[in-house]
Amino acid sequence: MGIRVAQVYTQFRSPLQPYLCATSERLRAEGVDLSIYTRAPASGAGDGEAVLLRGPEGVRGLPRAVCGAVAGCGDLARRLREWRALGLRGAFRRWLDLRDLVRQEHDVIHLMNWPLYKLLRPYLIGSGIPFVISFRGYDINVRPLEEPGWKTELKEIFSRAAALHFVSDALRTTACSYGAPREKSVVIRPGVGREWLGGERTQSTRKCLRIFSTGRLVWEKGIELALLTIRELARRGVPLEYHAAGDGPMRVPLLFWAKNLGIAERVIWHGLLPQSRLREELSMSDAYLCSSVSDALGVGVLEAQAIGLPVVATRVGGIPEAVLDGESGFLFEFGDVYGMADALERLWREPELAAEMGRAGRKFVLERFSVEREAVEWVRLYERVADKGRLGLGAETAASRGAGEDFHVRDLRDLPD
């Protein structure tokens, strides 16, 4: 039996992070005994893969719950600590939610999203099972600005977790400025499944430049800048269409932006697309535009390069780690609308350059961002964390040992096999 890992999601098979499913499938192929738990029902195929962390509400199913509680109360000290933290009623409801997770034996628990820490906190403290928590952007880049008290909560998470996972060096650096210990801050970049790595793209023969963007319609994605870039290209007489896939709270404001800029007829809003349809739409495009204000890494940028599209993007957050500037795309300082327009026009007028950059991007993603490589890095991290747990170096103990511990890993490829 391989290492026993519980991955806990806010929502498994989330339309916002579908790439995580490819990683879980690959982990099982690597021999990990993986269990998946989620707070929300799965969306799409494979609904039975995840266990819902949701018990009966109110008094429904109470007799069954009471019997289960009596049968499962072997660790009385742990339950007393939980009750003291939550109160009797809160602890009982928490147990209803978590009983399926608690009853299993795991070597490592991996919280895939930061909101899960509050839900699992009493259990994590009481069980002593080492846990890993992932940070993907908003939690480090944005929320500390919105909610100053969040920094205090972050410090608790940083101290209790056995390992802190970040999707880019840039995100890790920002987290360390808020107190994340470098010795347990690990960068594992998301992998791109081979379904994105199709055949060689042929040089476009269309008479219209087709530009594509993906991502939630939120202010962090900076779609306003993309629309300004499209207007600049239209002013220059470049025949073009701008396609945007995604949905979010900025949808209506962006519709107004496109209308007021006089480019509404050039913009096609696709909404949320299934992965197969998204790959098809990207494969029919000529360039990918990422005008983000804040971006931890940019999975959409990686997927576009895997398809074979040259990328034009802003140099923010972890984007420079995901694009080879001048080789697989062009990077510009935030707000440089004219620079991005120049690059897109150049790709339109020099199709050989666009094709060359597309090939370089596919090679880059295949070599550095494959889901197979990501899975190997995860296995190494899980094994390292589990070993600490077996030695009694749980979350709090490992944190207190500080930089002297041999847990300082900038990139998991530096770990010995």
Describe this structure in words.
The protein is an alpha/beta fold and 417 residues long. The protein has two domains: 4-191 and 372-414, Rossmann fold, CATH 3.40.50.2000; 196-368, Rossmann fold. Helices cover 46% and strands 15% of the residues. It is built from 17 helices and 13 strands. The chain has helices at residues 19-29, 62-71, 76-86, 88-102, 116-127, 138-146, 150-160, 169-177, 223-235, 251-260, 275-283, 299-307, 319-322, 337-349, 351-368, 371-390, 395-401, and strands spanning 4-11, 33-40, 50-52, 108-111, 131-135, 163-166, 185-187, 209-214, 240-245, 267-271, 287-290, 311-314, 329-332. The chain has a seven-stranded parallel beta sheet, sandwiched between helices. Strands 10-9-8-11-12-13 form a six-stranded parallel beta sheet, with helices on both faces. α3 packs across α4 (88-102) and α14 crosses α15. The chain is elongated, with a radius of gyration of 23 Å. The relative contact order is 0.12.
CATH superfamily of the largest domain: Glycogen Phosphorylase B
Q: Percentage of helical residues?
A: 40-55%
Total number of helical segments? 17
Task: Give the distance, in angstroms, between the N- and C-terminal Cα atoms.
Answer: 19 Å
Name of the CATH first level of the largest domain:
Alpha Beta
- Overall tally of domains: 2
Q: Write down the Rg.
A: 23 Å
Mean pLDDT: 83
Instruction: Summarize the helix and strand pattern as letters.
Output: EHEEHHHEHEHHEHEEHEHEHEHEHEHHHH
